[in-house]
Every structure is written in C-alpha cells, then in structure tokens.
Design goal:
This protein has 143 residues and is an all-alpha fold. The chain has helices at residues 2-10, 15-21, 24-30, 55-79, 83-112, and strands spanning 130-131, 140-141. The chain folds into 2 domains: 1-45, no CATH class; 49-114.
Length: 143
C-alpha cells in the first residue's frame, strides 16, 4: 500500500517538481520506480525480519516491530494532510495496533504457562538440567 501511494504521488512528476520536492537524489538512482528504503535512505533488506527461534524472544521482537511501525505511521500522519494519503496510512496504523494486541495475547498465553519462579521469562525448554546415566541409552531431563 505504501509503495502504491508513493507511485501515485510521483507519477507524471516533471524533473523540476522532483528537484523542488527533494526527491532528486532518489530520482538519480531509481527514477520514480519503487525502491523500498527507510526514510533515512537505508535500503530495505532481509535484516528487517528478526527471528531467533525462541517463542518468547520472537514475540517481544514482533511486538516491538508493530509499535515501531505504528509510531512511524504516527509521524507520517503528523506531516501529511492529503486524505488520499492519510486515510490509507490510518488504516495501516490501525492494523499495527491490532497486530500488537494479537502478539501480546500470544505472549500472555505463553507467560501463563511459565513456572512462577521463572522471573526473567526465559524459555523453559532450554537449559533444563539433564542427566545421562552411563547405564542407559540416552539422557533424561531432571525435573
Ligand atoms: Fe504489523
């Protein structure tokens, strides 16, 4: 949706309009094609997606990402008055809030399953004490 908005806003711009709007550096590299990047000019890449493979860690990361997206939309909405831009951004902002809430619910469910002594909310499946008796064929968790 954001790429579509950018495309619609830049379609048919003259070189003079591009220079006046501050898009000249972008235009030199990409014309008016869509090149996903941060507002500061850092290109989008797979590093934007974080996954640790630990449910607790990943849910906190997901929730932070949703809040960062929401606050970015807040910043855009403070600057943009065109309803053709602001209305879709408000829709995207509302989605981020719902995403944050759903991840928060998942985190709450996960935390409800933790032992009450797990004060730091680490994943209890790691670092469980294990013993591997030489007389057996494998290791067993010590509870
Ligand atoms: Fe989201």
């Amino acid at each position: 949706m954001v790429s579509t908005i950018v495309h619609q806003l830049t379609r048919g711009l003259s070189v003079e309009e591009i220079e006046k709007s501050g898009l000249a550096p972008y235009y030199v590299d990409h014309t008016v094609g869509i090149w996903p990047q941060a507002a500061g000019g850092i290109p989008f890449n797979a590093c934007e997606f974080q996954s640790k493979g630990d449910a607790m860690t990943d849910l906190y990361e997901d929730m932070a990402a949703e809040q960062k997206a929401r606050s970015t939309y807040d910043n855009i909405l403070r600057m943009v008055k065109d309803p053709d831009v602001a209305d879709p951004i408000r829709f995207l902002r509302a989605r981020e809030i719902v995403h944050f809430q759903r991840f928060g619910e998942a985190l709450r469910i996960l935390q409800d399953e933790l032992d009450s002594k797990n004060f730091y909310a680490y994943n209890p499946s790691f670092d469980k004490p294990v013993s591997c008796p030489s007389s057996s064929n494998g290791c067993v968790e010590n509870n």
